[in-house]
User: What shape does this take?
Amino acid sequence: RVPPRQSFLPQRSTCWHRSQTRRSFSSANDQPSSQWETVIGVEVHVQIASDSKLFSGGKMRSSIEMDPNNNISLFDISTPGTLPVINKKAVEVAICAGLAVGGSVESWSTFDRKHYFYADLPAGYQITQKDNPIVKGGSISISLPTPDKKSFREKSVRLVQIQLEQDSGKSLHEHLPGKSLIDFARAGSPLLEIVSQPDLRSADETAEFLRKLQHLLQHIGVSRARMEEGEMRCDINVSINRPGEPMGIRSETKNLNSIRFVQKAIGIFNSNST
Assistant: This one.
């Protein structure tokens, strides 16, 4: 099986750290020294539990069940003349997720084109929601141990927005030496992107936030959110600054497909930055 596509195109940051490094880190590296503060924001992409794709009648299957380049509609491979038709179930699921986190469900929202080049993005752009998403605001409460480890405290992690967008295809690199193959079976799958405010301060807090979000989405039927199958993927934005000073330069690590990898990436950033 092929892990989710890794992107190393610098979009928001001048500093990059590969999350697949094999160094191991103890919990001591979760946080930098007391002279520094870690600031973390998360963007989570979850595949909506739907029978069809976001803008076409293409059938949805799990990544294990799908053979390469099956269940493809003409729209999903950007055939000229085809037009999108929104999946009603995806809209209902997005509204359900927004209500579950206490967000504001917008009565008017729009879709935007996000232009960038990937070989597995046949249109050359992704249909997403940037300026007018379907849900704004909301929060998720997480339980964290107190410093003495004898009790727990609640922390509210604010959300910026929840938006609908389509997934890309998948590039396969291991089948033919020196060549890449493209599988469009996943192209056009409906995604929810859930964007948090930079309210997290450690790898453990981030892990707890992702677990709580995963369980919530599974419980209300929004997504199966199985990270091992690419149904939930995370981008993390991390920076450090001295307490009381403005936030530092962000480093973004994209398409992490396990909570352990998220924790490891944050530990690597702290170790390399301090």
